[in-house]
Amino acid sequence: MYINNPNIKLPNDPNTIVWKYLDLSKFLDLLLSQQLFMSRSDKFEDQYEGTFSEPTYEEIKKLSEHNPEFLKYYKSQREKVVVSSWHINEYESFAMWQIFTQNSEGLAIQSTIGRLQKALEVEQNYKQYIGEVNYIDYKKEYIPFDDLFFPFLFKRKSFQYEREIRIVSDVSELGLQIDNGLKVHVNINHLIEKIYIHPKSENWYKKLVIELVSKLGYDFVIEKSDLESDILI
């Protein structure tokens, strides 16, 4: 279920467009299971995920001098927080196609922040929060630690191109042992507004995606990437 947290930064307009770039197998898994995969926060490629900036870490160390469990708690928390990453952009991103799809058989889901919030209402086991990632200098800038989710909503400035929105969930209260991540139930029709096919894909691939989506009982708008539109001159 989606929970609003007033401490977490989010664009005011629920119609803000967000994207998820993924391959066909992950897309089909989403449709078949009607569940969205959320990765364990410490399994991302960026080793700084869920950690603190240097100024914040120094403050936490001082607080931990007489309470070592305080620091231990924050370190272990990374194993109990799961994340689904989305990209804010009014338009498609050539860079996102390059980074998040391995070949010409990738897809992009177009949604909005409001749709994400609505889609998560069907999940009853886990609480989800949605927040915009802040990009800072980890050597100089401070990450607040008065909210559990703040370490997972800050990244280094070198990742600023991602313009990331995150669905975040903390499962520590449930006592679960998470390997790589977990799946949460979503309403697919709320989640997905449009599907875009990889700009370098062949026509047969677009037809295949349309046929598969139709056979699974969905009627999303499916379009070829705008990056592959006809040249006018």
Automatic annotation (TrEMBL):
Domain of life: Bacteria
This protein's name: DUF2971 domain-containing protein
